[in-house]
UniProtKB/TrEMBL annotation:
<keyword id="KW-0274">FAD</keyword>
<dbReference type="InterPro" id="IPR006093">
    <property type="entry name" value="Oxy_OxRdtase_FAD_BS"/>
</dbReference>
<protein>
    <submittedName>
        <fullName>FAD linked oxidase domain protein</fullName>
    </submittedName>
</protein>
<dbReference type="InterPro" id="IPR036318">
    <property type="entry name" value="FAD-bd_PCMH-like_sf"/>
</dbReference>
<keyword id="KW-0285">Flavoprotein</keyword>
<dbReference type="Pfam" id="PF01565">
    <property type="entry name" value="FAD_binding_4"/>
</dbReference>
<dbReference type="Pfam" id="PF08031">
    <property type="entry name" value="BBE"/>
</dbReference>
<dbReference type="InterPro" id="IPR012951">
    <property type="entry name" value="BBE"/>
</dbReference>
<dbReference type="GO" id="GO:0016491">
    <property type="term" value="F:oxidoreductase activity"/>
</dbReference>
<dbReference type="InterPro" id="IPR016164">
    <property type="entry name" value="FAD-linked_Oxase-like_C"/>
</dbReference>
<dbReference type="InterPro" id="IPR006094">
    <property type="entry name" value="Oxid_FAD_bind_N"/>
</dbReference>
<feature type="domain" description="FAD-binding PCMH-type">
    <location>
        <begin position="47"/>
        <end position="217"/>
    </location>
</feature>
<dbReference type="InterPro" id="IPR050416">
    <property type="entry name" value="FAD-linked_Oxidoreductase"/>
</dbReference>
<dbReference type="InterPro" id="IPR016166">
    <property type="entry name" value="FAD-bd_PCMH"/>
</dbReference>
<comment type="similarity">
    <text>Belongs to the oxygen-dependent FAD-linked oxidoreductase family.</text>
</comment>
<keyword id="KW-0560">Oxidoreductase</keyword>
<dbReference type="InterPro" id="IPR016169">
    <property type="entry name" value="FAD-bd_PCMH_sub2"/>
</dbReference>
Amino acid sequence: MVRVHVVTRERLNSGAIATLRDRIFGDLILPDDPRYDTARRVVNVTVDRYPALIVRAADAYDVIQGIEFAREHDLPLAVRSGGHSASGLSTTDGGGVVDLSRMNAIDIDPERATAQVQPGATSADLAGHAQPYGLALSTGDSATVGLGGLTLGGGIGWFVRAHGLTIDNLRAVEVATADGRLLTASADEHADLFWALRGGGGNFGIATRFEFQLRPVGTVLGGVLILPASREVIEGYLAYAPQADEGLTTIADLMRVPPLPFVPEEQHGELAFVVMVCFVGPADEGQRALEPLRALATPIAEMVAPLPYPEMFAFTEAGTVPHGGSIRAGFADTLPPDAIDAILDAMENQTSPLGIVQLRGLGGALARVPADATAFAHRDRALFVAIVNVWMDPAEDAAMHRAWVTNLWDAVWPAASGTYVNFLDDDGEERIHDAYPDATFRRLADVKRRYDPDNLFRLNQNIPPMP
Ligand SMILES: Cc1cc2nc3c(=O)[nH]c(=O)nc-3n(C[C@H](O)[C@H](O)[C@H](O)COP(=O)(O)OP(=O)(O)OC[C@H]3O[C@@H](n4cnc5c(N)ncnc54)[C@H](O)[C@@H]3O)c2cc1C
């Protein structure tokens, strides 16, 4: 705490702070504010940073004030929507934070099936607002993830195979830029910026509003199928998931079985292959699409039924509790037997019972968008693979938990390539580059040069401006 006061006194005089406070409609939260300790924290409980100030913006005007203040006082600037950044990039030591969590309004136009959404809204907020109209957007798998960070990285969600990425359903973005302008980027306006915002992350400005095209999704066939954890089952899943009926998106977690009511008690805590399923379309077609999955092995337990789409988030609720985390992820076309064996072996030798290896079958609508249409370009890959360690107590040995992830990743990486910017941790510059093919990275650096030449927005998976 002392550290912050020093930074604040040295770099910011009280007159400048008072002027900022007068200018904004939202809240300016300083280290002596009783709300500060909660406001500085993010979902990853191992991230313990002390910003000099937090602008909890009420609107786009406040966002611009935050940007201008950071620029004028040469303050590192973090941007926060839902706070789920794995490496805690949405907070900072000694700098400023523009916190968009209050900017969470959602306005649905049922006639046009569109939604105007502020970045602090979450996946569950949008799903809940759109549900009464029988509409939905494919966002992530977890309720609390912010649409700000999720959308700008791409958004691999519950119906990515049926309706593409979140950005494939994005019509326009309102953005506050480094020079304090408020622009609308779409296919018709600032098309270069619109391209970059669809996968380039928070590099180009602060998104203050999104316009999404919603899809007619009310009820889905959704649930969980728990299969035995074996090399044969995993191989079967890898072949099946990217080729399944396009209405079906699956997310498979190799994990310890949680104590769910529909799972026999003796299975609780055992290693299993837990496949979450979400089918968009008639339930009987969905059941047929699931038959090959059920045929891989006798399920240990199953709970699949027609349900309102927002209920899908119940299956990932445990992961949304603030926690310590470490992740490595990438794309693959398949996994060879030795990588699968390494995964099974690591899962038998976990440092935390909450660690998982996640496999997602891709393809479908995601793959039909040309690779150069958006900054997210890994569209032809069959699979997404993520190794995730999770622990609840920040006092636990984080280095040990992280080593479990990186050691296993070293064994899996030869089968994978590329990565997804939203699943990057503190992987380093080279891995940020891996998130984009070379030509995409160069084009992003060029757009960065035009919209943020001084790299004001650098507390992110950073793409430096092209010189
Ligand atoms: C439990 C969990 C489940 C997840 N599941 C999925 C999933 O199913 N699919 C998927 O695609 N991803 C998933 N993710 C990854 C998630 O999409 C990213 O972590 C995303 O960046 C989080 O967004 P946020 O707004 O919550 O995070 P924040 O920490 O607030 O933001 C992350 C970064 O995004 C940038 N940013 C955020 N908002 C803005 C804005 N308005 N303008 C400019 N830049 C901004 C900033 O650079 C910031 O550092 C998951 C993450 C977690 C922790």
